[in-house]
Each structure stands twice: as C-alpha cells, then as structure tokens.
Amino acid sequence: MGSSDDDREEWTAATRVVRAGRDKALTGPFVNPPVIHASTVLFPDTDTMLGRKQRYLYGRRGTPTSDALESAVTELEGAAGSVSCPSGLNACSVALLSVLSAGDTVLMVDCVYGPVRHFADTMLKRLGIETIFFDPKIGIDIADLFADRTAAVYLEPPGSLTFEMQDVPAIAAIARGKGAKVIVDNTWATPLFFKPLANGADLSVQAGTKYLGGHSDVNLGLVAANEAGWPALKETHGTLGLCVGPDDLYLGLRGLRTLAVRLDRQMQSALTVAEWLTHRPEVARVLHPALPGDPGHALWKRDMAGASGLFGVVFDGWSMARAKAFVDGLALFGIGASWGGFESLAIIAHPRKVRSAVPWSAEGPLMRLHIGLEDPGDLIADLQASFLRTDGL
Ligand SMILES: Cc1ncc(COP(=O)(O)O)c(C=O)c1O
Predict the structure, then answer these.
(1) Are the CB atoms for 119 and 143 separated by under 8 Å?
(2) Which of 187, 247, 351, 352 could be 207's S-S partner, Cβ–Cβ 3.0 to 4.6 Å?
(3) Cα of 279 to ligand 1 centre, how many Å?
C-alpha cells in the first residue's frame, strides 16, 4: 500500500511520521485511517474468492488498519515490507524463525534482551537450532565464529540493560559475505535514529510497545525486511497466524504521529540527567552511548542520528540494599518493566544473570533509568533527594 500519493524524497523522518501510512484511497477526507474490526471479509462472487482477486481476504491476513501501520513502518525503515505482531518479543521470535531451520546456527549478541535469549535457549534449541552468544565488542572478529550452517546474526545496538554498542555495518558486511541474514533489534534508537537495513541488516525489529506506542498502554511489535528477507518474513508471519487487534494497531499509529517530538525531548532530557549523574561521587559509570566518555560513543556517533531516553547507572561500591532504597524512595520514577512511555521509570537490573559470552562485572549495582516527558530539572531534584536520603546506608 502506498503511504501517501505525493511522497517527496527530501522529506525528513519528522515529516514522515506525520504522513506515513495515510493512504487517501482508504482514509478519504479523514485525517486518521479507519479502525477496522474484521475477521470475515465478503467477496462479490465465487470467482473473486477462489482467484483471491480482492485486496482484503480475511481479517488475519491484513486490514486497512494493519496496512496503515505496516506501510508507515516500511517507509520509515526503508524496507520492502513489514509485519505487525502482538508484542515486541513476538516480533523478535518471528524474525528469527523466518531465517532459521533445523541444523542452523545463529550468532547472538551477549547483551540481547533476556526473553530473546530465553527463546533461543529453549524453543530454538528444541527445534534443533544452536545459538552462539558473542561479545558485543567483537567487530570484524565475528568472522571467526561462522561455520557452514551459520544462518543468522542477531544484534541489539545498544543492549537494553548494559548499553553496549555493536558495529552493525562491519558485522553485517561479514555476514552477507558468508550468506547469513542479519537481524537488528532497533527498539532503542527507533527508525528515526538508526536505519538497520541501510546499514546492512536484512530485518529490523521494533518493540512498538516502547517509543512507537509511547504511552505505556499497548504491546506491539513490528518487523521490517529488505527484499531478501521479505518473502520468508511474510510467509512465517502468515503461517504462524499472527495478527494484531485493530485498536492496538491504532494506538501504534496514534503514537507514531508524535514519535519525533517525544523522542527529541526524551533524548535531550535523558542527556541532561545522564550528564548530571556523571558528576555524582556515588556513581561509578553512566552507561549511555551518546555520552562522549562511553566506550560505544564512536560507533553511536558514526551510525545513529540520536539517542532515546533509556540508559544505565552503575553505583560505586554500593550495597544492593542501598540501591533498592534509592529506587524505592524516588517520587517521579515508577518501578516497572518496559520503557518508551511518557513517564520516567527506574529499575535495578541484573545483567549478570543474562550473560554467557562475557561476564558482566561492575563496580556496584546497576540501575536502569527511563527518562520520560517530565521536566528534567524535577527529575534531577528527585534523584538528588534520593542520594541524600540514602547517604550512609
Ligand atoms: C530491546 C527490547 N526488545 C524487545 C522487547 C520486547 O517487547 P515486548 O515487551 O513488547 O514484548 C523489549 C521489552 O522490554 C526490549 O527492551
């Protein structure tokens, strides 16, 4: 489905998030695409049905609402096609299943989102697919890990707990030379700040639950594919019978329209808070690739056009009890899973439990912060108060 009939090449992503997926043939004079609740779709006659000569065949196989979101994501990712999935995790697993068969091996970055590691360690293993985890810093040395049946490489730049960047273009170039597909979880940067397909990946995954939805009220996943990855992705998604309810698709579309302004604000606020934290004596390290001192900064600067509002803070020699008290005492940061919404969140993370290639070692407990749309000055005051309250604990 064409997203808009007067597309201009020079339009930036900020303009595209407002316009993408709004096919006038479907929306008519309305600004927003219709929210179609449908399973059965009727055909005018048997020939049309048997010949599948109609654009829409059955609710599960696509509706104007799913087309609107998927075509918007296709446009933003510079893809050949996209599918929508009921969660981000499901988008990750569908992407993997679309490129792997029994007997294959997948190379997976060690800082991968924990439930994707679990999927690899359990279901992929049961299907006869081996997973080899590798150091996020591996770069071109990944060439040494390829064997005859290495079919895919899975990346997450930066990892959503430890924020280690990966050299996507270098790894993708090697994978391509070896005939393996590359999957990138692009949830942190979103297609506004990073274009995995233009950097050599075949599939770009996004947990739409996070920044795309943006309001902590929907679980949603998207996978965008290049020409090489698209046929198998579409087939796998269809075979598994995946589809997303129309109201959740609509929440994704609604979030998309403000993605650029929210991300811009959250990036700036997060950098303000992160920078402030780097000067605190209680903090050993701030894990944020957009900070000049971060080990991943050069890669981030080279590859990404911006940063989101999620980063890590390593407390210097603190006990776990003090770290917990710090988080529990915050007034403006909720304690909860996920991120990408309008509200700030703080959690204590346990990367040690989800590593196998390179052990996680740090100077103290790790807190992950998600910076929302609150005033960054208020957030800093809240953090400052918690530092004072926990002093000496
Ligand atoms: C990097 C990353 N990918 C994927 C997911 C999965 O998204 P969902 O919670 O919608 O399944 C998450 C969720 O936290 C995530 O952080």
Answers:
(1) no
(2) 187
(3) 30
CATH T-level fold of 260-390: Aspartate Aminotransferase, domain 1 (3.90.1150)
60: annotated active-site residue: yes
Give the separation between CA 373 and CA 252, rounded to whole angstroms. 18
Confidence (pLDDT) at 27: 83
Rounded to two decimals, the pTM is 0.97
Average pLDDT of span 104-131 = 98
The confidence score (pLDDT) of residue 6 equals 66
Testing ligand 1's pocket by substitution, the residue of 165, 183, 205, 209 carrying the most ligand atoms inside 8 A of its CB is 209
Cα 160 to ligand 1 centre (Å): 9
- 250 tagged catalytic: no
Between helix 246-256 and helix 64-77 the angle, nearest 10°, is: 40
Cα torsion through 32, 184, 175, 119, rounded to 10: -120
Map residue 292 onto helix, strand or coil: coil
Q: Which two tokens stand for residue 121?
A: 């360690």
**Domain-wise residue ranges, the chain:** 13-256, 260-390
**Mean pLDDT over the full length of the chain:** 96
Q: Is 222 in the pocket of ligand 1 (CB under 6 A)?
A: no
